[in-house]
Amino acid sequence: MIDPGLFVERDSAPDSEGKTVALGAMRLEAGSTLPSVRLAYQTWGRFDGENAVLVCHALTGDSNATSWWDRMVGPGRPIDTDRYFVICSNVLGGCQGSTGPSSLAEDDAPYGSRFPIITVGDMVDAQARLLDHLGVNYLAAVAGGSMGGMQALEWTSRYPQRVQRAFVSASAMRHSAMQIAFNEVGRQAVMRDSRWLGGDYLPGEGPDDGLSVARMLGHLTFLSPGAFEAKFARRLQNKLVPDYHLGIEFEVESYLQYQAGKFLKRFDANSQLILTRAIDYYEGPNFSAASAKYGFVSYTSDWIYPTSMSAEAHAEAVATGRASFHREIDLPYGHDAFLLDGELQGEAFRELMTS
Question: Which residues are catalytic?
Answer without folding.
Answer: 146, 302, 335
